[in-house]
Amino acid sequence: MHRDRLILLALLSLAAAQAIFWIWTQPANAATENWTVVPDNWQTLRLQWEFSHLAGAVFQLLAFGSLVAAALTSRRPPDIVAGEDGTR
Asked: How far apart are CA 8 and CA 16, in angstroms?
């Protein structure tokens, strides 16, 4: 993959991890007051909380791996056009 695409993948993965947190994890935390209160649907909330953490971790790992790959991918130097005498 091209270096810029790896960086874009990392950025999108971090955005996805944040979206997952704010859409699923944080509402479960709020409904349980950070797990100090047990609402009637706590089992559903617990599953939502656990799977959202799993999905967020996958996206964060993908972002980290993409950034490492981008850092290890060197940019190809521009081609040097040979002169009329064949020298560079």
From this structure: 12
